[in-house]
Amino acid sequence: MGRLRFLTAGESHGPALAATLEGIPAGLPLTADQIALDLARRQRGYGRGARSTSIERDRAEILAGVRHGLTIGSPILLLIRNRDWENWTRVMQVEPLTDEQASELAALVEAGDKRATPITRLRAGHADLAGASKYGFDDVRNILERASARETAARVAAGAVARALLARLEIDVWSHTAEVGGVAMDPDRATRTREEAEASPLRCPDPEAETRMVTRIDEAREAGDTVGGVFEVVARGVPMGLGSHVHWDRRLDAALAGAITSIPIVKGVEFGLGFAQTRSFGSAVQDVIGRRNADGSWARASNNAGGLEGGISNGQPIVIRGAVKPISTLPRPLPSADLVTGEPVQKAHYERSDISVVPATGVVAEAMVCLTLADFVLDKFGGDSLAETLDNVARYRARLARRSFVRPGGGASTAGAGPSAGRPSTGGPSTGGPSAGKTSGAAPAESE
Ligand SMILES: Cc1cc2nc3c(=O)[nH]c(=O)nc-3n(C[C@H](O)[C@H](O)[C@H](O)COP(=O)(O)O)c2cc1C
Q1: Residue range 143-164, pLDDT digits in tens
Q2: Residue 265 Cα, ligand 1 centroid: separation in angstroms?
Q3: From ligand 1's centre to the CA of 364, what distance in Å?
Q4: Domain ranges in the chain?
Q5: How far, in Å, from the CA of 231 to the mean position of ligand 1?
Q6: pLDDT over 90 at 353, yes or no
Q7: What angle separates helix 152-168 from helix 32-43, to the nearest 10 degrees?
Q8: How confident is the model at residue 445 (pLDDT cuts 50, 70, 90)?
Q9: Which among 129, 141, 327 is the best mutation to test ligand 1's pocket, defined by most ligand atoms within 8 Å of the CB?
Q10: Separation of 12 CA from ligand 1 center, angstroms?
């Protein structure tokens, strides 16, 4: 991340989760209610366990960076209190234990209290073994408390702030469930409106497929098992020109792929046609370029590239799919081994768990896409205040519509106005940095 940075903190059963977000321009309207909408969406979805649907009921408090409902340019601090904390105060106590408290805890362990007992029966598919080995713990709780996807609630809260910024630029990000347990939606049967899909059990636009997805989840639950699936995130209204072909770490596709695969449980990512294009001829895959429209957008015959070419947004909707593996914690646990003794055990540890989390992971992915796009927007357009960012974006959009460009060796032109009118530019865009939209010193200024 460059212009927009964020960090999260907090353990799953600690007092709270927190997110700090730095780089959001001043003057953006922001309330806790806006953030609550996305937090609630993350908690829904058929196949989630009791914790998600009842205990969590998340709400983020805004503790810094906002005054009278507007951001003021300083870091934004968001706090989500863990509602279950009261049941964990001793086990997850931050302060050192007094002798009395240590005895109290030891008595709980003696009595077989599950919360208090150190976890040593390793769960495959989690950070348990590698994490405990790496950090040198003999109690896996020190690892799972942070590795747990509960942390993604803080990301969703931060993502909601990024979403509020993108909304001002008319950029919209939404996800749906495309597949669960091998049952895929059929785009031709996707008859639901966005509102209808949003309200459905799995946020799936194809009602027929959704019924079968629900059945798959029920079958898994009855068998003591879990199922995975695929979510799809679509970002609309993204201006052409975010990211760059010039260097690996400026490519928008790479940043998005990293952001999506940073979500615990996501094991693959594809853009547009994705892996399917490897099985087609090139002639069937490329998105034929039609004409330039009056507003500066370009007609394309398809969007197989998923809105990204050469690491740059091309003005088409950005389409990303993520592969969600089946949940690792099985209600009917697999055999495993003990971290301390190294001996086999009959059953891995069981921590209250979901059966399937595809829709929720889609919401987390929306947050990661919003944060990544907001970062790239701010990198390109800059702006200490929202007004400044919006001005810069508007000037850039107008410039794209006018099709004015810079020639190598200096000089600027506007399509239809000069000798090179209508011909493609051979030079790079002049608006690559935070000074976007302003006249640059290197090339002669364009007439506005
Ligand atoms: C929203 C969400 C909820 C999750 N809930 C669970 C769960 O209840 N049980 C579980 O074992 N894993 C759950 N996971 C996945 C684990 O956090 C993840 O598989 C684990 O941390 C290991 O990381 P890895 O799968 O990326 O290797 C969830 C993931 C997400 C995004």
Answers
A1: 999 999 999 999 999 999 999 9
A2: 5
A3: 12
A4: 5-84+149-381, 403-448
A5: 15
A6: no
A7: 130
A8: very low
A9: 327
A10: 12
- Around ligand 1, the residues with Cβ closer than 6 Å are 49, 125-127, 147-149, 152, 263-265, 325, 327-329, 353-354, 357, 360-361, 364
Q: Which atom of ligand 1 is nearest to the CA of 148?
A: 17
Q: Which residue type does 253 have?
A: D
H/E stretch holding 266: strand 266-271
The closest residue, in CA terms, to atom 28 on ligand 1 is 149
Name the pTM for this structure: 0.91
Query: How wide is the angle at C-alpha 179 spanned by C-alphas 177 and 180, nearest 5°?
Result: 100
The letter for the amino acid at 183 is V
Instruction: Give residue 212 CA to ligand 1 midpoint distance, Å.
Output: 23
Structure tokens at 435: 């000074």
**pLDDT (tens digit per residue) in 48-102:** 876 555 555 899 999 999 999 999 999 999 999 999 999 999 999 999 999 999 9
Closest atom, ligand 1, to C-alpha of 49: 8
CATH homologous superfamily of domain 5-84+149-381?
Chorismate synthase AroC (3.60.150.10)
Q: Provide the pLDDT confidence category of residue 135 given band limits of 50, 70 and 90.
A: very high
Q: What is the DSSP letter of 305?
A: T
Q: What is the mean pLDDT of residues 389-405?
A: 88
Extract long-range pairs of 255-260: CB within 8 Å, 24+ residues apart. 255/372, 255/375, 255/376, 256/308, 256/318, 256/320, 256/369, 256/372, 259/368, 259/369, 259/371, 259/372, 260/233, 260/320, 260/322, 260/365, 260/368, 260/369
Residue 396 near residue 194 (C-beta atoms within 8 A) = no
Q: Report the alpha-carbon distance of residue 355 to residue 330 in Å, rounded.
A: 8
**Distance of CA 215 from the midpoint of ligand 1 (Å):** 21
Q: Which residues pair with 321 in a beta bridge?
A: 232, 270
439 Cα–ligand 1 center, Å: 48
